[in-house]
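Reproducibility note. Readers wishing to regenerate the assembly model reported in the main text can use the exact inputs given here. Chain order matters: entities are listed in the order in which they were concatenated for prediction.
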Amino acid sequence: MTSLDDLPIRDDLRGRTPYGAPQKTVPVALNVNENTHPIPEDVAHDIVARVAAAILSLNRYPDREFTALRRALADYLGHGLDVDRIWAANGSNEVLQHILQAFGGPGRSVLGFAPTYSMYGLLASGTGTRWITAGRDDDFELSPGTAVAAIREHDPDVVLLCAPNNPTGTPLSLDTITAVADAARGIVVVDEAYIEFADPGTPSALTLLEGRPRLLVSRTMSKAFAFAGARVGYLAADPAVVDALRLVRLPYHLSALTQAAALGALAHSDEMLAMVDEIRGQRERIARELEHLGFRPYRSGANFVLFGGVDDPHAVFEALLDRGILIREIGLPGCLRVTAGTEAETTAFLEAIANFAPSTRASAAATPAASTATTPASTPE
Ligand SMILES: *Cc1c(COP(=O)(O)O)cnc(C)c1O
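Running the prediction on these inputs yields the following structure tokens for the assembly.
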């Protein structure tokens, strides 16, 4: 067997590592921000019926324009969006790849605000786009001033705004998004993978699309919609942007089975999203309890919580894994990230993490240490 180094691989891919969130079969998997509630059985039956019908015509290529699916996605999004403003692909990762294929590429750059979603850098390298990271404000917030200064400095072709941000959970204000859209000369993507978990009343960047043809809002069915295994992500943007993405997608990229399954899930969107309030409640519970234990949870508008104040994140990660609980090491000093699961999963996590609480590490008489918990010294890119 040859090693990767022996192959005539592209120079810019040499030494790179692939996306690698551990996939382990454990009782409590809280590491990749899935909706951990199973799909309701009646919805599953409807999806099966639709997929079964689609199987009968698998001898033919699927609708290349996935028109029925785009119609359903437009209806789901609302905001007066029409079919010609909708795009979809096999996960929003593929949507983002299409965007970088069309608007990035060799000689072009894409800017993100670290720490942010690890796939952005990988998608940049896969498409030969230069990946630039700029910093955030205290507590991973991103103010209009900080964001605009980075755009002035780097003049990127594409800007990726993750709202709420993964892995920090930080919500992003529309003020920052509009300031970025005004300052950037290129494409501005708002990745709203977790927007359904934002506090009620939080406006979506969809409200900003009108009159901003270079603003793109991507969404996914992988998180709130409990459909990660089906691989469906989508986008709303100007019809001309959608035309640009048609230039780079592979023909028939969404299989007939994927389209049928997604249509089935969207026909039951209320049921599919029924657990979102409950998950948000568990997120708040995690933040509250972690703070009480002396950890430092960061503000989250997503279905996960990043928390600092962990002495040895790797040791804690391993100790929880020994108890069948998988959370996420994200390379931020003193920090770990946990997905808000079911009530029982959350309880299992909280009971396990309590053994590593800063408040029990400190002297028994110490007052809750939340305000003195450590903040990460630096943020990796
Ligand atoms: C999970 C996630 C996605 C979704 O990826 P899919 O390919 O749709 O499963 C997109 N963006 C961010 C920031 C995520 O965390």
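We highlight two features of this model. Residues 363-381 have pLDDT under 50 and may be disordered. The first strand starts at residue 28 and ends at 29.
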